[in-house]
Amino acid sequence: MAEAKNTILIGIAGGTGSGKTTLADKVVDSFGRDEVSILRHDNYYKRHDEMNYEDRSKLNYDHPDAFDTELLCEHIKELKKGKAIQMPVYDYTIHNRSDKTILVEPAPVIVLEGILIFAEPSLCELMDIRVFVDTDADVRILRRIVRDVKDRGRSLDSVINQYLTTVKPMHEQFVEPSKRRADIIIPEGGENAVALEMLIQRVRKHLEEA
Ligand code: C5P
C-alpha cells in the first residue's frame, strides 16, 4: 500500500518528569480518536522474561538500547500506510512488558512521546515536527519521586539510587544533547498554555488540509 501523504508524526521529547506526557495527552484529548493517535516509546521497552524481578530492577532504563525502537519504527510505518497496530503495554511495577496490547488505529496525526525519541536517528527522521519539553532538573526529580513512589511501586531509596546511577548520567549523555534535534523547545510541559494552544492550532491546520 502506498504511504499515506496525509499523516504527520509529532514527536514530544523531554527528560523524565518534564511534563511531556501531560502535554502529549492534552494535545490528543483536544481531538477525536479518529483524528489523533498516540504512541509512547516507554511501551516499547524490551521484554526481559529471562530475568527475575531483582535482576530486571537493576537494568539501565535510560539508555537507548533499553528500547525495541526497531519495532516502534515498524509500527509507525504501518500506521503511515493506513494500517492499525497492536502497541505493547509496559508495566513499571514489574519492570517488564505486560501481556496486554493496545490497538492503535491510523489517523492523520500521530503523537509520539518519550525521553529518548530524538536520540535515535532512525526514529527521529520519521517525525515531521519535533518538540522538546525543557524543564529544570530539580522540578523533574521532585515530580519523579512523587510519581514513582505513588504509581510505580518504588521506595524513596530506590528512586534516589536509580536517579544518581543511571537516570541523571543518561539524561546528560543522551537526552539533553538530543534537544538540538528539536524544531521547537518549550519550557515546562502541560502547564504551558501558549505552547499547547500553538500545537493544537498546528494539528487543526493539518486536519483541515488532510
Ligand atoms: O514517564 P517517564 O518519561 O519519566 O518514563 C521514563 C523513565 O522510566 C526512565 O527515566 C526510566 O528510568 C524509568 N523506568 C523505570 N523502570 C522501568 C522502566 C523505565 O524506572 N522498568
From TrEMBL:
It is an enzyme of class 2 (transferase). Keywords: ATP-binding, Cytoplasm, Kinase, Nucleotide-binding, Transferase. Residues 9-194 form the Phosphoribulokinase/uridine kinase domain. Transmembrane segments: none annotated. PANTHER family: URIDINE KINASE. The gene is udk_2. SUPFAM superfamilies: P-loop containing nucleoside triphosphate hydrolases. Belongs to the uridine kinase family. ATP binds at G14, G15, T16, G17, S18, G19, K20, T21. InterPro entries: P-loop_NTPase, PRK/URK, Uridine_kinase, Uridine_kinase-like. Pfam families: PRK. It comes from Roseburia intestinalis. CDD domains: UMPK. It catalyses: uridine + ATP = UMP + ADP + H(+); cytidine + ATP = CMP + ADP + H(+). This is Uridine kinase. One of its GO terms (cellular component) is cytoplasm. Its EC number is 2.7.1.48. The keyword Ligase does not apply.
